[in-house]
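User: Can you predict the 3D structure for this chain?
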Amino acid sequence: MNTGLLVQYVVIGLIVLASALIVLRKLAPTLTNRWLAAASIRFSRPGHSTWVRAFGQRLQPKQATGNCSDGCSTCGACGPKPPAAARTEAVPLEFRSRAK
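Assistant: Here is the predicted structure, written as structure tokens:
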């Protein structure tokens, strides 16, 4: 196998893996948050080196802060906005005859 072809396969594989992780993160955020929390705990153990513990801290998923800007949607207040109020005045229909 040619070295250039092997590099091409590795790059394409990394792109496909990154795309799959992004899709999984969008479609199953609770599952991926659990996975990130488990990996964070595993890497943050005291026996590991400093850079491994720092990586574990970076993997820790963000927690909902309880305000409306975090988008947690636990209280239902951040849901879709209701439609704008309909016009209150009635506008009569006008029918015109067709010109022949």
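The mean pLDDT is 81. Helices lie at 3-27, 29-43, 50-59.
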